[in-house]
Amino acid sequence: MITRRALLGYGAMAGGGALAAACSPSNAGPAPAPPVAGTAAPAGKAPWEKEWDELVAAAKLEGKIAFVTRVGTGYRTALEVFEKAFPGIVVEQRQFATPRLSEPVILAERGAGIYNWDLWEGSSTIALPSFRPKGVLAPLRPLLLRPDATDDSKWLNGFESGWLDNEKKLGYAFGAEVGGWFAIDSRQVGEGELKTFQDLLAPKWKGRIMLQDVRQGATGGPMTSVRAAQGDEMVRRLIIDQQPTFSQDPRAITEALIRGQFPIGLGVTKPVLQQFLDQGVGQQVKFVDLPPATYITYTNAIWYLDRAPHPNASKLFVNWLLTKEGQSAWAEHTQINSLRTDVPPQDPSRAPAPGRRYYAIGPEATIDDFPKTTEYMQKLIVA
Q1: Which of 93, 128, 149, 212 could disulfide-link 218, Cβ–Cβ 3.0 to 4.6 Å?
Q2: Around Cβ 343, how many Cβ atoms within 10 Å?
Q3: Spatial distance between the Cα atoms of 233 and 21, rounded to a whole number of angstroms
């Protein structure tokens, strides 16, 4: 919160000094020094606060935001927090199971000259190669107003690290989680036995690792991170030399570890494992961090659409969303780990560690890495 400072009482002091000088010229002390330019506190609100008040008024005149999100009751609940914070502004929401499903709808509407939507929540893999060249996106950066929303000290690795496009102006990611964790059967893998990805290449694990299909993110993500850090050879050694078993089914991989058929697996998900834990089995399955296989993936990003019908309300929402209040509401109700450091993570086990640099999947600089790694692994397998 910005503290408002009161005017210095210089005027009153100066007046009193002038009166004393008139009455007793011989005893008058030195006249008060004039204030140094630029040091006096401004009267009333800071400039951004005045602009904010004007924005709130303009947004209420529009009375609405049209927002495209993914499916989930948590999204609606988070939007209701915004509506309560700014009475008179409602959020019209359209939900899609995945951002990919919203892509043809938005493109078809705009092709027909229909501009219904202000904001879109989705992936850079759609926004940058599809929306950007078709003129769907407008710059988000000019909307940013509140200093508490863009304060570097409140964002993991600084505010600027959240931009997804190379020019740092179109899409901003505010949520992320660590991915690429391998799972182990702790009855067969000793504590501390696996510390880095290279430990997986030990002869004792040959033929004893189960991986999800190389076309799936569970394998493609960590192998992309490894490939970026250590090159193709490290990927080849795991995929070929270690003779892993592949499966498309995360449940099958999870069950194989629970039954002790494999000591190491990649593709186990927490929701699937929880189903077994609820049945009283699977307690021995643990997740391990094996850098550089672990990476971060951006789970939420906001984009501003060109010709938005409610520009003032959109600007208001974006600024609110990136404050502590907005991120707290969004994280709590959509169960994400916010990149704001003053917002507690919803899943601490998947929260990026402060001070640690991860390979990031999502920014434009790395957007082509994943499909290239997948293509590389497929060629290895069929060779």
Answers
A1: 212
A2: 23
A3: 87
Beta pairing class for 295-305 and 171-179: antiparallel
Spell 232-252 as b/e; 16+ CB within 10 A means b: eebbebbbeebebebbeebeb
Q: Which tokens go with 342?
A: 């003053």
Residue 198 phi/psi, 5-degree rounding, is -60, -25
Place of tokens 């600007």: 315
Which are the contacts of 94, defined by CB distance < 8 A and separation ≥ 6? Answer: 66, 67, 68, 69, 102, 117
E strand intervals along the chain: 64-70, 90-96, 119-121, 137-138, 171-179, 182-185, 209-212, 245-247, 264-266, 285-288, 295-305, 359-361
Q: List phi, psi (to 5°) of 263.
A: -85, -20
- In terms of Cβ atoms closer than 10 Å to its own Cβ (0-12, 13-18, 19+), residue 44 is exposed
**Calpha distance 159→174 (Å, rounded):** 9
Alpha carbons within 13 angstroms on the beta-carbon side of residue 249 total 6
pLDDT tens for each residue of the chain, 383 residues long? 333 333 333 333 333 333 333 333 333 333 333 333 333 335 578 999 999 999 999 999 999 999 999 999 999 999 999 999 999 999 999 999 999 999 999 999 999 999 999 999 999 999 999 999 999 999 999 999 999 999 999 999 999 999 999 999 999 999 999 999 999 999 999 999 999 999 999 999 999 999 999 877 789 999 999 999 999 999 999 999 999 999 999 999 999 999 999 999 999 988 899 999 999 999 999 999 999 999 999 989 999 999 999 999 999 999 999 999 999 999 999 999 999 999 999 999 899 988 888 999 999 999 999 999 999 999 999 87
Neighbouring CB atoms inside 10 A of 176's CB total 28
Structure-token pair, residue 20? 């004393």
Q: Over the range 128-147, which residues count as b (16 or more CB within 10 Å of their CB) and which as e?
A: bebbbeeebbbebeebebbe
